[in-house]
């Protein structure tokens, strides 16, 4: 019915703020000028939060498959029929069970090409665990489902883009998971994503150190000297404009991040704490390095405010628009490079 980009949306934990931010985003009619949203969940749960938000006139167009979507409406694919006991703010197995049913169905359509991108609402990483979801989070699950060897958790904001070498890894295991090969892989994915997904032609990337003061020339750990610096040197030999390692505290405190197109942090909190401080309301999470497009807001389930009509949809809305922009850029690059002009060598012969 439309050539507009189809954005699939998984609802996340039914006891969290996922459906609240989804509804607050989709109630704005301007969103339908840019995409066709398809929510994977059930109208029964959506009706509960619609009443909570007093959105009496808002309704979903119920469909069975993405190709049935109405480009001028919010569409819903019902992933289950049974009644669900909704308890806003409560972390339980019910929330995890239906979060997975939504995510699984949406991911199937994403991989099959039935939707153009997936925006995931927050899950509880503990309650969602089951035999089919034995992963630390969305990033690792979607990487596995797409058969990709690696991926990059890439936090995107207006003034700061941050990727992490180690994502959902316990602090005690961070150092053992940092190798020269892993850093190089993340730098290559970051470089490629900046060029393909954000159209930065010659991205300049800052690399943070692991230890306080970036190791202080070996006085506080050897990782900078033995792993990180050699990785940066090899990256530069491969044509990647990577610099560092920088001490994380001084780097952000002095605003040095504004001089770079992106920053590669060594671990989750090293990158996400400054990112959320700087870009909290508008920042989003993008899984780079995959053949599919997946984004999400940069916050969690928000149990403390779930069901209270206090959740801001700003980050979720940005995640939707970021997905739209990335899909468009990838399509344009694919079109521009699909039929390159043949190069004919000039000769000295002239007629």
Main pleated sheet: 12 strands, mixed
Helix content: 25-40%
Task: Supply Rg.
Answer: 22 Å
What is the end-to-end distance?
Answer: 54 Å
Query: How many helices?
Result: 9
H/E series, N to C? EHEHEEHEHEEHEHEHEHEEH
**Would you tell me the structural class of the helices and strands?**
alpha/beta
- In terms of quaternary structure, the protein is single chain
Strand order across the biggest sheet? 3-4-2-1-5-12-11-6-7-10-8-9
Beta-strand segment tally: 12
In one word, what is the shape? globular
Mean pLDDT over the full residue set: 93
| Content of β-strand | 15-25%
Low-confidence stretches: none
Could you characterize the architecture of this molecule?
By secondary structure, the protein is an alpha/beta fold. It contains nine helices and twelve strands. The chain has helices at 18-26, 43-52, 93-112, 138-145, 180-196, 223-237, 248-253, 268-279, 314-338, and strands at residues 5-10, 35-41, 61-63, 75-78, 117-120, 152-156, 161-166, 204-208, 241-246, 262-267, 284-288, 294-297. The protein has a twelve-stranded mixed beta sheet, with helices on both faces. It is globular. The mean pLDDT is 93.
Layout of strands and helices, then pairs:
Blueprint lengths: L4 E6 L7 H9 L8 E7 L1 H10 L8 E3 L11 E4 L14 H20 L4 E4 L17 H8 L6 E5 L4 E6 L13 H17 L7 E5 L14 H15 L3 E6 L1 H6 L8 E6 H12 L4 E5 L5 E4 L16 H25 L13
Parallel strand pairs: 1-2, 1-5, 2-4, 3-4, 5-12, 7-10, 8-9, 8-10
Antiparallel strand pairs: 6-7, 6-11, 11-12
């Amino acid at each position: 019915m439309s050539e507009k980009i189809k954005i699939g949306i998984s609802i996340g934990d039914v006891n969290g703020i996922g459906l609240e931010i989804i509804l607050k985003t989709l109630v704005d009619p301007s969103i339908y000028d840019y995409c066709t949203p398809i929510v994977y969940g059930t109208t029964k749960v959506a009706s509960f939060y619609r009443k909570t938000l007093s959105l009496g006139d808002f309704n979903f167009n119920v469909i069975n498959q993405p190709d049935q979507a109405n480009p001028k409406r919010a569409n819903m694919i019902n992933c289950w029929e049974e009644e669900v006991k909704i308890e806003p703010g409560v972390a339980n197995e019910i929330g995890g069970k239906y979060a997975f049913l939504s995510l699984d169905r949406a991911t199937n359509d994403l991989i099959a090409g039935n939707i153009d991108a997936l925006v995931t609402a927050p899950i509880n990483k503990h309650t969602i665990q089951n035999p089919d979801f034995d992963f630390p989070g969305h990033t690792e699950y979607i990487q596995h489902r797409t058969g990709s060897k690696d991926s990059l958790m890439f936090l995107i904001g207006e003034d700061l883009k941050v990727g992490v070498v180690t994502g959902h890894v316990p602090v005690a295991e961070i150092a053992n998971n940092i190798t020269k090969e892993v850093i190089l892989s993340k730098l290559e994915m970051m470089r490629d994503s900046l060029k393909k997904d954000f159209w930065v032609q010659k991205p300049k990337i800052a690399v943070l150190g692991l230890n306080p003061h970036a190791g202080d020339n070996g006085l506080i750990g050897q990782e900078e000297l033995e792993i990180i610096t050699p990785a940066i040197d090899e990256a530069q030999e491969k044509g990647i404009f990577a610099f560092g390692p920088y001490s994380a505290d001084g780097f952000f405190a002095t605003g040095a991040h504004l001089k770079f197109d992106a920053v590669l942090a060594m671990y989750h909190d090293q990158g996400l704490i400054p990112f959320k401080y700087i870009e909290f309301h508008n920042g989003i999470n993008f899984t780079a390095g995959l053949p599919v497009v997946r984004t999400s807001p940069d916050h969690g389930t928000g149990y403390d405010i779930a069901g209270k009509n206090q959740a801001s949809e700003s980050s979720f809305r940005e995640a939707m628009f970021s997905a739209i922009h990335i899909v468009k850029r990838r399509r344009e690059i694919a079109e521009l490079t699909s039929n390159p002009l043949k190069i004919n060598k000039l000769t000295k012969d002239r007629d």
